[in-house]
Amino acid sequence: MSNVQRIPVLPVHGTSRKKNQMELLKSKRTQIALVVLIIQNSTLVLMMHYSRINQDPGQPMYIASTAVFMAELIKIAACLTAIMHENGQERFLPVLYRDLVCQPKELLKMLIPSGLYAIQNNLLYIALSNLEAATFQVTYQLKILSTAIFSVLLLGTALTKQKWLALLLLMIGVTLVQLPTSTASSEKHNGSTQNQTVGLLAVMASCVSSGFAGCYFEKILKSSNTSMWIRNIQLGISGAVFSFIAVMAYDYPRIAEGGMFQGYGLLTCLVVINQALGGLLVSLVVRYADNILKGFATSLSIILSSIISFRLFDFQPSYHFIFGAMLVMLATYVYGRPVPQSVKRL
Predict the structure, then answer these.
(1) What are the beta bridge partners of residue 323?
(2) Which secondary-structure segment (H or E) carries 157?
(3) Whether 276 contacts 71, CB under 8 Å
(4) Per the domain annotation, does 255 fall within a domain?
(5) Which residues lie in coiled coils (predicted)?
(6) Distance of alpha carbon 169 from alpha carbon 186, whole angstroms
């Protein structure tokens, strides 16, 4: 009688199939997050710009710092709702106590990105108050380049020559897309004055802040197992503190005179909600992709918002617009195309 021990056969095909299903699910989540982010970015800039240059006669302009503060509170409330949905009412408070109260060092880690995001959000209102929407959109794409640089410096990301070429094509394409609206658009500002130098400085500083904060936050998200919702609550708490300090330091006299919500209307509320939920969408994209891919989604949203602008203001796409749109699409394809391992990285 044979004593040969039988070696169990591992279910290789089952394991491979499960891995493929997980990869497919991750890919679908990434695609959904990017599509929603494109729509959100397409509407936010137009709504925010319109809300800063148009108000009803006799109605004061809403205070930008209060809008930033309210957006942080809404983001915290949305994250708390998500945590309760995932864990149930019985485990809701224990989870918050374990991940927030018992880990103060994790909250301190978020001070840097939250402070930068608070600065960035206030700078966006300043920029959109002093620049036309098209000029802002073109200049704001510098954040893609700053994100790429900080990805290399902070995350150790190795970008191939192919990806650097994609970034270059993207910048050229977005600039060409914006040329028609930059030269043809004319807006009535209801007597509001605009300082282009202030606007350009604000948007450039916001680009640097966005690139550094985004990469820093990505590093924190991907280096720990902490829930994304908890991370966003930590980010929101710190951001709300910084935003409240800005409200009290710079706008308290106006608040004391006219109230915190002076000038608020339906459009203002929609802008605040859009900005708050947009921050969570960015976190989803960072979780399932990376900051540079997020930048491409933002760039594609510029094309969509430009199309909406053409539709609303009866503009006709020029050859510059069509060629620029094709370059952006080509850049997206070049960046996402798999690169052979033998290709030398920069």
Answers:
(1) none
(2) none
(3) yes
(4) yes
(5) none
(6) 28
Contacts of residue 82, Cβ cutoff 8 Å, sequence gap at least 6: 229
Distances (CA, A) of 264 to 44, 60, 91, 190: 16, 9, 37, 17
pLDDT tens-digit readout, 259-315 = 888 888 888 899 899 888 876 776 666 565 555 666 666 667 767 776 776 666 555
Q: Which domain holds residue 95?
A: 41-50+60-159+194-287
Specify whether the CB–CB gap between 226 and 99 falls below 8 A.
yes
Structure tokens at 8: 């169990």
Type of residue found at 47: M
* Number of domains the chain contains: 1
Q: Is 259 left (phi over 0), alpha (psi -120 to 50) or beta?
A: left
Residues 6 or more apart whose CB falls under 8 angstroms from that of 49 comprise: 128, 132, 133, 136
**118, 242 contact by CB (below 8 A):** yes
pLDDT interval class at 231 (50, 70, 90): confident
- 0.90 exceeded by pTM: no
Place of tokens 């608040």: 255
| Whether the Cβ atoms of residue 46 and residue 308 lie closer than 8 Å to each other | yes
Tokens of 183: 């030269």
For residues 294 and 286, is the Cβ–Cβ distance under 8 A? yes
Record the tokens describing residue 115, joined without a space. Answer: 């402070």
Cα–Cα distance between 272 and 64 in angstroms, integer?
10
Please name every residue paired with 345 in a beta bridge, in sequence order, or none if there are none: 160
Tokens 């985004």: give the residue: 214
Residue-wise pLDDT tens digits, 59-73? 788 888 899 899 999
Whether the CB-CB separation of 117 and 208 falls below 8 Å is answered with: no
Structure tokens, 221: 């998200």
DSSP-assigned beta bridge partners for residue 80: none
Q: Does 172 fall in a domain?
A: no
Q: Which amino acid is at 188?
A: K
Q: What is the Cα–Cα distance from 94 to 258, expressed in whole angstroms?
A: 41
What does residue 139 show for φ and ψ, rounded to 5 degrees? -65, -35
